[in-house]
Design goal:
The complex is a heterodimer of chains A (234) and B (402). The longest helix of chain A is centred in the last third of the chain and has 16 residues, at 176-191. Helices cover 31% and strands 26% of the residues of chain A. Chain A has seven helices and ten strands. Chain A has a six-stranded mixed beta sheet with strand order 6-7-8-3-9-10. A four-stranded antiparallel beta sheet of chain A has the order 2-1-4-5, with helices on one face. Chain B has two domains: 15-65 and 267-399, no CATH class; 72-260, no CATH class. In chain B, strands 1, 2, 3, 4, 5, 6, 7, 8, 9, 10 and 11 form an eleven-stranded mixed beta sheet that branches. In chain B, helix 9 runs parallel beside helix 12 and helix 11 (320-356) packs antiparallel against helix 12. Chain B starts with 14 loop residues before the first helix and ends with a helix. Classes of the chains: A alpha/beta (234), B alpha+beta (402). The interface between A and B is large, with 45 and 38 residues.
């Protein structure tokens, strides 16, 4: 099976005196079709993992492969292209644009792909159907519940058929009922073939997913898939 | 595991999408949009209306000058070394009339007499009104018009009747000409038979009380020496007439005769108005700059407030230049909106003011198009720095919870 996302010996240091090491030599592969949780307390390096995996930030050293592309040396422009084509993001705060309907918010997932507006809206409507919001197409974010807003955000992350979806604390702003529904949605989408990584501090949520990768102090403490990091190196 | 590469095509941001994304921000922030565009609106409106009004008033002045005729000359005794009595020899009129291209000559004789509303008024409070004795053809020579009542005729010129200039009528409180209205000239009662409209080319006449020469001769026993001559010439020979007038009027000392062309004064007046317009134009430019600073301010705030949106767009695949384009487009749309409103408002002000003055409405297209493009230029200038800040923001920084 091909890796949708692979990290090889990734180190991330933030400048300072002394420099802060957020990731110290992380190697990890997420296969196509996987649903994995990256779990750890705050300060464990999981936010940095989101940034590096999502090509929002470059590693200090090491290699990052997104759908087979080694991106650690990419320019800002090319990283943007990788995000627009290969990666979908779901954020804890949803980050929907207030003045836009659900369809247009989801359509924004295709905004930087050069696709015409009508086509974007058609695909956005399809994506909203997939997340169970077929009846909320023209609603504005402030007319939706928290759970519904996160569904819109998930539809936006799926609409361009990315190689991988990265979800950062997707249930962090939701009550337990909505959280449960979102978890079920993510599992359902995964079983339809979407590769997904959920970054969370919530062990319970992590344990509900097929694979858990536990972080502590910038290193993988435990990986339930049982593959040791060194086995991935050539 | 050997990674299989899929080609990644670059991010794109279509022009239509740039504009619609930039415009959608305004719908959710209507008040702020309106207020920040207002500065530009006022600046452009000031520029357009000042240029429009000065064009309109200039057109009016030109029409006025054309109607009055530019072929009028006035001849007065100058304040030369020998001069002093301020009058011309009585035969001057005849001499000037004999110059070939001279079409009409009329003279006015200044009577050194007090003009009073009635005998209760102190004799020294004449309100600057001069009594003049004239020929009947003066009105015709000056293209003058009657505002009320009538002009002198053969009969009235020989009896104590008077026609008032526009300013005199106002100062004496003569609003309409009615039977039995009388004023005092040099101690004698004169019936007011008419009021004149203003003479732009001979403003002295506006401040005068005009009587016929025959009554002036009999009533005041004055010597009939003209104090000013009004001369109409063939338009194409004005300069020649002008050059021979002094020596014709006073062959012995031509330097003591002043010849002037009143329409030149009006042209000078136009230039003075130009200076005033330039001052206001400067004010318009200043308010435009202030408007630009207002937009820059709003854009800087927008970039700070919408950090998360910038982060989201970067996560969705926007490049730095896409973010920059979005914010530049917003500032450009704001200023275009302000500019359009300003051009409309300026044109409306021009139209309303010009028509209230009875002027012809002139809207210079250069001012309107130029005003709009000035607004766009201000928009680019104001948006550049905030847009660059937005573009430079690192995605991880932008996504951090506020």
């Amino acid at each position: 099976m091909t890796a949708a996302l692979e990290l090889r010996n990734v180190v991330k240091q933030y400048p300072g005196n002394p420099p802060v090491t957020a990731l110290s030599g992380v190697s990890l592969a997420i296969s196509e079709g996987e649903l994995a949780a990256i779990v750890g307390p705050s300060g464990s390096g999981k936010s940095t993992m989101l940034h590096v995996m999502g090509t929002l930030d470059r590693p200090t050293s090491g290699e990052v492969y997104v759908d087979g592309n080694e991106v650690s040396g990419f320019t800002d422009r090319r990283l943007s292209a990788v995000r627009s084509r290969l990666i979908g993001f779901v954020f804890q705060q949803f980050f929907l644009i207030d003045g836009l309907t659900a369809v247009d918010n989801v359509g924004n997932g295709l905004l930087y792909s050069g696709i015409a507006k009508r086509e974007r809206q058609l695909r956005a409507a399809e994506a909203l159907l997939r997340v169970g919001l077929g009846h909320r197409l023209l609603h504005l974010p402030n007319q939706l519940s928290g759970g519904e807003r996160q569904r819109v955000a998930i539809a936006r992350a799926l609409v361009h058929r990315p190689a991988i979806v990265l979800a950062d604390e997707p249930t962090g702003n939701l009550d337990s009922r909505s959280s449960h529904a979102i978890l079920e949605l993510l599992r359902g989408l995964n079983s339809d073939g979407t590769t997904m990584v959920v970054i969370t501090h919530d062990r319970e949520l992590a344990n509900a997913l097929p694979r858990q990768i536990a972080f502590r102090d910038g290193v993988i403490e435990h990986d339930s898939a049982g593959r040791s990091a060194s086995a991935l190196l050539p | 595991m050997s990674p299989v590469k899929r080609a990644v095509s670059p991010s794109k941001f279509r022009l239509g999408d740039v504009l619609s994304v930039a415009g959608s921000g305004f719908r959710t922030r209507k008040m702020r949009t309106a207020l920040s565009a207002l500065g530009i609106t006022i600046g452009i409106a000031a520029l357009v209306s000042i240029l429009g009004l000065s064009e309109s008033s200039r057109a009016e002045l030109k029409a006025q000058i054309a109607a009055l005729g530019t072929n009028l000359l006035t001849l007065e005794p100058g304040g030369g070394f020998g001069g002093g009595d301020g009058v011309l020899p009585a035969e001057t009129v005849g001499k000037v009339a004999r110059i070939g291209p001279v079409e009409q000559v009329a003279d006015a004789i200044s009577l050194d007499l007090a003009v009073l509303r009635n005998d209760f008024v102190n004799e020294n409070e004449t309100g600057g009104i001069a009594a003049l004795a004239v020929d009947l053809d003066l009105l015709d020579t000056l293209n003058g018009n009657i505002a009320a009542g009538r002009w002198h005729d053969q009969a009235s010129a020989a009896v104590p009747t008077v026609v008032l200039g526009a300013v005199s009528a106002e100062r004496l409180g003569v609003e309409q000409v009615s039977q039995g209205m009388q004023i005092l000239i040099g101690g004698s009662w004169f019936s007011v038979i008419g009021v004149l409209e203003p003479f732009p080319l001979a403003p002295d006449l506006d401040r005068s009380a005009i009587v016929g020469k025959p009554i002036a001769a009999t009533e005041f026993d004055n010597e009939l020496n003209p104090s000013v001559l009004y001369i109409r010439t063939a338009p194409d020979q004005l300069d020649q007439v002008r050059s021979v007038l002094p020596s014709t009027a006073d062959p012995e000392s031509p330097e003591e005769v002043d010849v002037s062309r009143p329409s030149e004064l009006l042209t000078a007046e136009e230039e003075i108005e130009d200076t005033t317009a330039r001052l206001f134009l400067g004010l318009g430019v200043v308010s435009l700059l202030v408007g630009g600073i207002g937009i820059a301010n709003v854009m800087v705030i927008a970039v700070i407030e919408r950090r998360n949106e910038i982060g989201l767009r970067r996560a969705l695949g926007a490049t730095r230049s896409h973010v920059m384009r979005q914010f530049l487009a917003e500032s450009l749309l704001l200023s275009a909106l302000g500019g359009l409103c300003g051009v409309g408002l300026g044109a409306a002000v021009t139209a309303v003011y010009a028509s209230s003055q009875g002027w012809q409405i002139v809207l210079p297209p250069a001012a309107m198009v130029g005003g709009f493009f000035a607004a766009l230029a201000i928009g680019v200038g104001a948006g550049l720095y905030p847009a660059m800040r937005a573009a430079r923001l690192a995605p991880t920084e932008a996504l951090r919870a506020a």
